[in-house]
Design a protein that fits this description.
Blueprint (H helix, E strand, L loop, with lengths): L3 H33 L8 H12 L3 H7 L5 H15 L21
Helix pairs in contact: 1-2, 2-4
């Protein structure tokens, strides 16, 4: 029995963490719905970002069972866009083109 104890503790911890991720996603979904009450349908960019961040931590089969606002495919697409925007490098660019040497004509 002592040999199984660490395995059972690890399994219980993993199950607890997985359930916690589901709860965090559902809480975020409820928060987004409450924000939408009395407003036109649709999600804001901030709501999409928050839901995508929570959904990314869950397995797709879990999302299929629990996600009710949008499909798991949509959530994963939102997450891909979020990551692409984060790492696109545009925030590091300065406006305008590169500096070019000025050409003067002596005629």
């Amino acid at each position: 029995m002592n040999a199984l104890k660490p395995l059972l503790i690890s399994l219980a911890g993993w199950l607890n963490r997985n359930q916690q991720l589901v709860l965090e996603y559902l809480q975020e979904e409820v928060k987004a719905r409450k924000e939408q009450l009395g407003k036109k349908p649709g999600s804001t960019d901030d709501q999409r970002r928050r839901l995508a961040a929570k959904a990314q931590k869950l397995w797709r089969d879990r999302l299929r069972r629990f996600a009710s606002i949008v499909s798991p495919k949509t959530l994963m697409e939102w997450h891909r866009r979020l990551i692409a925007r984060k790492y696109d490098g545009r925030s590091h660019l300065s406006p305008g083109g590169p500096n070019t040497p000025q050409v003067t004509s002596d005629s």
